[in-house]
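Continuing the batch. This is chain 6 of the set; chains 1 through 5 are on the previous pages. Same settings as before, nothing changed between runs. Recording input and output for traceability.
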Amino acid sequence: MLSPLVKVLNSVKWLLLKLQMPTPCTTPALLKNLTSIL
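Output for chain 6:
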């Protein structure tokens, strides 16, 4: 049941890392927010 969520989170994390390359400080904060929601 968690597998699809993990796949989605991993893809989102990868996209954020690619899109937010110039601002790496923003990515961990967003990831923390995503993980805290679950």
